[in-house]
Amino acid sequence: MSAVSADGSTESPFPRVVGFLGVGTINAAVITGLCSGPSSPERLVLSPRGAARVAALKASFPGRVEVAASNQEVLDKSEWVVVAVLPSQAPDVLGDLVFRPSHFVVSLMAGVSNRDLGKLMAPVPSANIVRAVPLPPVKDREGVTLVHPRHPRVMAMFDLLGIAVGVDEEGKMAKMQTVTAMMGAYYAMLRTFHEWLVGGGVGPADAST
Ligand SMILES: NC(=O)c1ccc[n+]([C@@H]2O[C@H](COP(=O)([O-])OP(=O)(O)OC[C@H]3O[C@@H](n4cnc5c(N)ncnc54)[C@H](OP(=O)(O)O)[C@@H]3O)[C@@H](O)[C@H]2O)c1
């Protein structure tokens, strides 16, 4: 399957196989968005932790999603790897793995710097490591995602899941990421307004506009 680019031509930003290390809330949203859209990798290889979640993704997208027996198998089978374990888990999880210099890594982990990622994923060159901060609406392909550095194929990937916002400096990325963390409070506030309006007799559709 292919993406439709601005000039009307079709091309996919993905290699054939993309691995996902740490299939929690955000990677599950990314996987769902990719598999439900017009373009996705041919094969998505998932790490086995979070058995119920990975089984549900495999059942939802049969033939495309595969569950690996180990984290190393994810790396061995994939050209790109999207990493989303918790930042505190990164040294243990990544330190045990053997990366290839040809791997391309998209790290979704908040606050783990490019420099630390380079050390944890050696011998992957720094040019092959991109950080991204997607928000959960990527599940419905309506999420905004920060991307640093502004890598064209990673930008294209997250444009398929909503809108990618390229950030040219790591310091700016940290600041912008902090603001994305306010998303939960923002949606909670909107829900409170909605409930208050509906409780006051306004129809749910009108209350949502
Ligand atoms: N949630 C968001 O909106 C969001 C947005 C942008 C970026 N992020 C970043 O994405 C990362 C993950 O966040 P999250 O909210 O998705 O967290 P999460 O739901 O807690 O997911 C973390 C996943 O990592 C798995 N895991 C733990 N140890 C592992 C190991 N040794 N090997 C493989 N998988 C392992 C966990 O499996 P178990 O369940 O079995 O422990 C869990 O499925 C964080 O670094 C966060 O900063 C999150």
TrEMBL record:
Cleaved signal peptide residues:
none
Q: Which Pfam families match?
A: F420_oxidored
Any one GO biological process: L-proline biosynthetic process
| Domain Pyrroline-5-carboxylate reductase catalytic N-terminal residues, every copy | 18-111
Q: Name one GO molecular function term.
A: pyrroline-5-carboxylate reductase activity
* SUPFAM superfamilies in UniProt: NAD(P)-binding Rossmann-fold domains
- Protein family membership: Belongs to the pyrroline-5-carboxylate reductase family.
Q: What is the name of the protein in this document?
A: Pyrroline-5-carboxylate reductase catalytic N-terminal domain-containing protein
Q: Which organism is it from?
A: Rhizochromulina marina
